[in-house]
Amino acid sequence: MTSDELDAVVDLLNYPMFVVTTRHGDERSGCLVGFASQVSINPRRFLVGLSNKNHTYRVAREAERLAVHVLDRDDRSLAELFGTQTGDEVDKFAACDWTDGPEGVPVLSAAPAWFSGRILGHDRLGDHEGFLIEPDSAYVADGDLSLLTFAEVSDLEPGHEA
After folding, report:
1. What is the pLDDT of residues 148-158, one digit of tens each?
2. CA–CA separation, 20 vs 146, rounded Å?
3. Dist CA 128 CA 122 (whole Å)
């Protein structure tokens, strides 16, 4: 198998995109994430992959909690902010509305749905590290939700290389 063959298959999978936020002390961080999935029903577990090159990864390694925000197609501006800027240079939270969520983790006001959970552990998974969380708080706005997917943000230039 060539990498082009695998890429052709993976290109068929139009994953939903998320913004993941975290906090350690006074330092907040967040990034656009495409590698995330529920991995257990009972007990509830969710796995988030963070690139080992980005600011959010470094903050999350010291943090106790993550918030995972589900984005609607109308939320492309949030995807651009959290996907094309780096927290090494920009305070992304100064450019959007947010509130303190559970245990002070930043929650994006515009996100139509989110959940938060305690980080149970993290392991290296290639060029990303998988953060296993135990969701314990959630919010879903009323109304229809049409998920923002990878195909709709594939043109964005990332703030860091993967």
Report:
1. 777 777 767 77
2. 18
3. 10
